[in-house]
Amino acid sequence: MKAVVKYGKGKGLVEIRDVPEPKVKDDEVLIEVKAVSVCGSDLHIYHDNHPYWPPVTLGHEFSGVLSDIGKEVKGWKAGDRIVSETRIGSCGVCFICQSGFPQACEKKRPYGIGVNGAYAKWVAGPARLLHRLPENIPFEVGAAIEPTAICVTSILERSRVQAGETVLITGPGPIGLISLAIAKMAGVRMVGITGRSSAEGIRFQKARELGADFIINVDKEDPVQKILGFTDGLGVDILIETSGGEKAISQAFEMVRRLGRVCAIGVSGKPEISIPYDRGIFKAIRFDFCFSSSWTSWERTISLISKGLLPLEKLITHKLPLEQWEEAFHLLESRQAAKVILIP
Ligand SMILES: [Zn+2]
Ligand SMILES: [Zn+2]
Fold this sequence. Notes:
- The chain is an alpha/beta fold.
- The chain has two domains: 2-146 and 293-343, Quinone Oxidoreductase, Chain A, domain 1 (Alpha-Beta Complex), CATH 3.90.180.10; 160-289, Rossmann fold (3-Layer(aba) Sandwich), CATH 3.40.50.
- It has helices at 40-46, 95-98, 139-142, 145-158, 174-185, 202-209, 223-230, 246-255, 277-282, 295-306, 325-333, and strands at 2-6, 14-18, 28-37, 56-57, 61-69, 81-84, 122-126, 130-132, 166-170, 190-195, 214-217, 236-241, 256-264, 286-289, 316-321, 339-343.
- The strands form three sheets. Strands 3, 5, 6, 7, 8, 15 and 16 form a seven-stranded mixed β-sheet that branches. A six-stranded parallel β-sheet has the order 11-10-9-12-13-14, sandwiched between helices.
- Helix 6 links the parallel strand 10 and strand 11 (214-217).
- Helix 4 (145-158) packs across helix 10 (295-306) and helix 7 (223-230) packs parallel to helix 8 (246-255).
- The longest helix has 14 residues, at 145-158.
- The structure holds zinc ion (2 copies).
- Residues 90-91, 94, 96-97, 105, 107 line the site of one zinc ion.
């Protein structure tokens, strides 16, 4: 079968290759991939600034239909519509796994990063990571459940956004826009988003469609002054950082209120960045570093979408055949897209 493979360590080194179709082990299922979403992490892997174990077929945000079922697998049958968590390899016995956070296990080797992923017609993996995809969620939307579950874990479970709060999201990429949809759904009093001039095309437009109360172009306006203006000089209750930009992270300490929270989801892609540490101490800011997604957030995300409370379909701007993965990467990198879906 054809697969989009990162075949070595270094910049680029991605191409379509002919690879053998996967075979299932006793505790695994074979999945026919119906849709796979292009993630910012895929671009980071392309550019060699994210962990990965080559050669590996890319793709960790996907939906599909079960085709072959391993001998020991119970509760699943061929034809079932599914999405899958990505935490392959999490050991189940270490302190982190046993305390209920297997997604943060050191042994984890996710789809598309450590083991072959879904930029292909078929992918095989453990049945224990599956979730049922309801009939009323299209496969394209299903492919965006993984990043949404990350946002749900971060915003609802870890930083615990509350109804009636004020929220700022820094960064209008897919994770920023998904965060906006979650904040709206959670009933916050005011939520805005920041971005650069490159977002004036599609991304700010999507933010408006999702109901952003304000949008700040940081190339034209000072976000700190704007936020203090919107909040009577107080700052927002919670700032969701999705840009990974050093300046935005540093400014977060000014834009969040005293005793407010920063929910950090964006990866900077740098070994170190500088932050106003003492400012954080004197304001008693809670800085939540967030990573990956919990089982509970997957179930929650799926029901929220199924009930029509998270309009993820609005974020899908492009749908391309798998062969056009380069075009998909380009669309995302040049910020002409929100979510790009590939169909194998
Ligand atoms: Zn992703
Ligand atoms: Zn573990």
